[in-house]
């Protein structure tokens, strides 16, 4: 049996972004991850795309936690996309707002993401 695939998006809560801003930033991460997988990891993209494109959004306390998660993801060989905002609305220019991870097999991605609360 093939493991389920999912994409995880980690959003910083210390920036106090509004719901719309969070949605936009999470969308940037999801699109970046999907486009990367479609080009560079066709197997993962195919499994993820054909099984409903599962996405899970988790809450990260701050930039340090986000960067730790990035490092842990890369150790496992997972693709990451760190999103920095242009700063036109709610956050300072260049603020790191969120991270996308995957898509990847749940059994792998859960090793580092399941400890975080859902957003």
Write a short abstract of this structure.
With 119 residues, the protein is α+β, with helices and mostly antiparallel strands. The protein is built from four helices and four strands. Strands 2-1-4-3 form a four-stranded mixed sheet, sandwiched between helices.
Strand and helix layout:
Blueprint (H helix, E strand, L loop, with lengths): L4 E8 L6 H22 L1 H9 L4 E6 L2 H13 L4 E5 L11 E10 H8 L6
CATH architecture: 3-Layer(aba) Sandwich
Helical amount among residues, as a percent range? 40-55%
Number of domains: 1
Name of the CATH first level: Alpha Beta
Number of helices: 4
Q: Number of DSSP strands?
A: 4
CATH superfamily: Bit1
- How would the global form be characterised? globular
CATH topology: Bit1
The helix-and-strand class reads alpha+beta
Account of the protein in words:
The protein has a single domain (5-113), classed as Bit1, CATH 3.40.1490.10. It has four helices and four strands, in the order E-H-H-E-H-E-E-H. The chain has helices at 19-40, 42-50, 63-75, 106-113, and strands at residues 5-12, 55-60, 80-84, 96-105. The protein has a four-stranded mixed sheet, with helices on both faces. Helix 1 crosses helix 2 (42-50).
List key phrases describing it:
4 helices, 24% strand, 44% helix, 4 strands, 119 residues, Bit1, alpha+beta
């Amino acid at each position: 049996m093939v493991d389920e695939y999912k994409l995880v998006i980690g959003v910083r809560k210390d920036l106090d972004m509004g719901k719309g801003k969070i949605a936009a930033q999470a969308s940037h991460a999801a699109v970046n991850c999907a486009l990367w997988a479609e080009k560079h990891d066709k197997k993962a993209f195919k499994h993820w795309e054909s099984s409903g494109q599962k996405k899970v959004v988790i809450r990260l306390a701050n930039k340090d936690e986000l960067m730790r998660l990035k490092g842990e993801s890369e150790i496992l060989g997972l693709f990451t996309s760190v999103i920095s905002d242009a700063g036109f609305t709610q956050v300072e220019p260049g603020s790191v707002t969120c991270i996308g991870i995957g898509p990847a097999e749940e059994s792998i991605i859960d090793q580092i993401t399941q400890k975080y609360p859902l957003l």
